[in-house]
Every structure is written in structure tokens, then in C-alpha cells.
Amino acid sequence: MTGLPLPARVVPHGTLRRLPGRVLRVDAAARPEIIDAVTALAAAAFDVTVTAGGAAPDVVLVDERVEAPAPLGADPRPGSRRGCSEAYRIRPAGDRLTIAAGSAEGHFRGLVTLLGACSDVLPGLEVDDHPLRAWRGLSLDVVRRRFPVDEVCRVIDLLAVHGLNVLHLHLTDTQGWAFAVPGYAALADDDAYTAADLDALEAYAHGRFVTIVPEVDVPGHVPARMARVVPVRAGVHPFLTAIDADDPGVEALLQAAFGELAARFASPHLHLGGDEAFGASVEGFARTVAAASRIIRARGRTPIGWQEASRAGALAPGDLGQLWIADRDRLDPEKATAAVPVEFRALIAQAAPLFAESAHDAARLGAAGVGVIVSSSDPLYLDRRPSEASLDATQHEAWQRLGNPGYEPTSSLSILDWHPESQPDIAANGLTVAGIEAALWCETVRDLDDAATLLLPRLALVAQKAWGDADRDRVTAAAASSAPVWERLGFGAFHRSRDIFRP
Ligand code: TNX
């Protein structure tokens, strides 16, 4: 048995040889970038020591392109890797294994699959595998919870273990600003990531074949903090303010912020936000999203916006929109008004038309020829409580405060029954699914344990969906067997879902 995602085809052939001391010797001809990436990950996640070379390697990497269907969607990787296939093939050869792939990334994927199946013996695996989708991500809110750099690295390890390849960093929000922008010292929080921190994250992610896609969210969400350095159009509530590209200094700030992201990250895509800009006028919203898109394009990058960005009319074919508002989570103004304290009623009144408009975002994206990253709040928002959490005696207390109470809980396994292409707004508008991204919003997250409880096991199931559907019982068994890997990486507080960890 391998970990998750399960390969497209796997045939076990018994044991090939023992691996004394859990040492796996990979032939020296392998390129150093692969050995480096795998050695560190094997030690951190799999308790296996990978060494290069030796006279009788356990695994031989073969440079050979493996034929496989092209993955669906947008390629998130920086230019140098574009066109590389992640497909790989594992075969027993005598008492060792060969892994064939046409790229370092393919070899890396194959080795990770093998590590998930190794114990103190080398299994005789026959595997043929390739990802269904090119863009397989996690969006991480590092504003509501400022994860230290080493914790973000653990998240990157987790992505690499499960074959995910995008870490979308949500770097700005109402509560703060998570990175330093040169020339705007007053913007950043005290514990914001420095340029050196961002460089460290980028290098770490690159070494594990993960692309970091950074986001500065405009024109909503950010103004509370931006008011320190530029004029802000004020409202009756922090959520009802907005910045406007027409105001003095705003364009220069956008230049500096996106310029810094472009300087620190090689991602072909930069994210401009665009969601929930309740305080912006229609024109101000359009101006600001257009300015951000222009600035991103001028840096040779491609803009991504949350679905509401479609309303600015600034997204063009090849750009990406990110769908997040699931039908069942669309704001019901009557219900919401009844549920909130009086001082929030103005917010609901102002937000209601924008949420109503969200029903048309998908059609607008389709008409503009924009592909979609799918992060539908159902089932991809991991701050939704899993319904089986109510049965979880060990974590009962954590679930009292963890997760967004505004969302109806749903089963962790519901992810397995979801098909992005058949989601009504996507099917009805003939949208191209450019990728899928789970999202971890961190309003209720205090530490890495809380993050673990929300992330796992669901993120591993999302990874399976991104690589392709597989038999449900095998998927749940593989999820359960991943627990030691999560524990080693520091995610031991994962949710012990009864559907997976059967009592
Ligand atoms: C909506 S999704 C948000 C976030 C919240 C999240 C809570 C999106 C683009 N905006 O600011 O954290 O809901 O689930």
C-alpha cells in the first residue's frame, strides 16, 4: 500500500530486499536536486534515510519520458519547468526498482510514492502514475495566523508528501500585513515576513517542487492597514472601507507591493485578491482591479483574482479567476441580519447585493475566456467543520472553537464525491477548470495543532481528487495509514475522523 494520492495503477509484487536501518540507496547518476529534495523529505516525513550512490543501489532512476495524458488545467510552474511531465513508472528489476520519468519532477513524484510504501523492506512495486490536474494547491491564510517560517516549511513538506504543487499565500487582510514592502515600513506587522524570510520560503518550496503563488488582496480587506500610508475611502465598518487606484499614492503602493512579490517569487502568477470589497464603488473597484492587473502584467506575470474580480472587466483570456462562493454558502441577507448584532446590519445591507451578484461571476469569467481555480467553500474550505467532528470525543473541546461557525458542517469524505467539472456554475458556463485549491482560513487557528486539525485528513483527500479518482475504501485506508507521516511532520493533531480512523 502506498500513501495518498494512490497511484493510477499499482501492482504489488512482494518484497525485493531488506532495507537495514531503513536506508534507501538511490543510484548516484540521479541529479543532485532530486537527491537533495528527497533526502530531506524522507528524513522529515518517512523516517527513511536516502543516500546517493553505492555499488548496489536499491533504486535506479532512468531518464525516459513516460507517455501519459497531459494534465488538465493551467501549469503553475515557473518557465524553466514548463512542458516537463510529472508522469513516472516504477518497475521491479531483479531485487531492485527502477523509476522512469522524463523530468526531475517525475522522479521526485515516483520516489515520494515509493517512500510512502517503504518499511524496513523494499516493496516490489509496479506503478504507472500521472496527475489528472496540473494545478493542485492549498491557499493558506498567514495573516489571521502568522505561521513562523519553519511552520510554513512543514506545510510545504505536507504538500510535497501528497503530490500537491501550489502554496497560495494570502499575505494581506483586514487584520494585518504579513510581508515587508520596501519604502512602506508602516504597513507591515511587527512579526511580518522579511525579504529574507520570503526568499527562504521560495527556495524551500522550489526544492520540493511547490510553486508559491503570493496574494495582495485589493481593493477590499486591506484598507484598515493601508490607511497608514494612503488615503482610504472610509465606511461604517472596517469591512466597508476600500482603497481606490484614483487616490494619491495608491498606484505607487500597488507597484511597490506587487513589485516586491515579483522580486521574491518566480511564480508565473500573482494574485490580486478582489473579493468582498464591500466598501468600494463599482467604478473604484474596477479601477483598482484594473490597475493591479496592469501592474502584474507589466512585470511579465499573469493575474489571478477571486471570482468577484470578474466584475472589473479587467481579466483577459489566459488569466485566472478563483471560484469560492458555493451556492449553499451564499449570504442570505434575512438570515444574516437576524443573526448579527445591530452594529453589523449596515455591513449585511451593503454586502447583500455583492453576494447576489456572485451568482453571475462564473458566467462573466466564461465570457471573458478566463479559466478557473476551484476553491468552492463546499467542499474545499477547510475552515468548515467536519460533521463527524461532533462524535470526536478526543478533540471535542477543540471543535467548540475551531472552524467557521457560519458554515453548515459536512462529512470529511464528501470531498471524494465532488467533481469540479459537474459543479453547476462550472458546467452551466462551460468553464475550463484550471486547477483546484483547498483553502485554510485562520480566523480560529491559534497554532500548528489547530491548523493540523482543520487540514487533515481532508487535504490528503483533496490531493487524491487532484491526481484522479480511486476506490473509496482504498483511499480511506491509505489516509488512515498516513497518520505516522503527519505526526512526524508536526501535524499530529489531525482530525481523527471516525469515517477514516474507524474505532
Ligand atoms: C471568505 S474567501 C474570505 C476570507 C475568510 C473566509 C472564511 C475569500 C476570498 N474571503 O476572508 O477568511 O471567507 O471562510
Short description:
The chain is of the alpha/beta class and 503 residues long.
Give a structural overview:
With 503 residues, the protein is of the alpha/beta class. The protein contains 17 helices and 17 strands. Helix 1 links the parallel strand 2 (23-26) and strand 3 (49-52). Helix 1 (32-46) runs parallel beside helix 2 (104-115), helix 3 (149-161) runs parallel beside helix 4 and helix 6 (250-264) runs parallel beside helix 7. The two termini are 21 Å apart. The structure holds ligand TNX. The site of ligand TNX has 9 residues, from loops.
- CATH fold description of the largest domain: TIM Barrel
Q: Class of the largest domain, according to the CATH hierarchy? A: Alpha Beta
Instruction: Give the biggest sheet.
Output: 8 strands, parallel
**Total strands:** 17
N-end to C-end Cα span: 21 Å
Radius of gyration, in Å, reads 23 Å
Strands of the biggest beta sheet: in what spatial order? Answer: 12-9-8-17-16-15-14-13
The CATH architecture of the largest domain can be given as: Alpha-Beta Barrel
The fraction of residues assigned to DSSP E strands is: 15-25%
- Which molecules other than protein and nucleic acid are bound? ligand TNX
Let me know the average pLDDT.
94
Structural descriptors:
single chain; 503 residues; alpha/beta; Chitobiase, domain 2; TIM Barrel; 2 domains; 8-stranded parallel beta sheet; 17 helices; 17 strands; globular; binds ligand TNX; beta-N-acetylhexosaminidase; Glyco_hydro_20_cat; Beta_hexosaminidase_sua/sub; Hex-like_dom2; EC 3.2.1.52
Q: Helix and strand layout, with pairings?
A:
Blueprint: E1 9-18, E2 23-26, H1 32-46, E3 49-52, E4 59-63, E5 88-93, E6 96-101, H2 104-115, E7 121-129, E8 136-141, H3 149-161, E9 166-170, E10 172-173, E11 176-177, H4 195-206, E12 211-215, H5 223-226, H6 250-264, E13 269-271, H7 282-298, E14 302-306, E15 320-323, H8 333-339, H9 345-357, H10 361-367, E16 371-374, H11 377-380, H12 396-401, H13 424-428, E17 433-440, H14 448-455, H15 458-467, H16 472-481, H17 483-488
Parallel strand pairs: 2-3, 4-6, 8-9, 8-17, 9-12, 13-14, 14-15, 15-16, 16-17
Antiparallel strand pairs: 1-7, 5-6, 5-7, 10-11
Helix pairs in contact: 1-2, 3-4, 6-7
The structure holds ligand TNX.
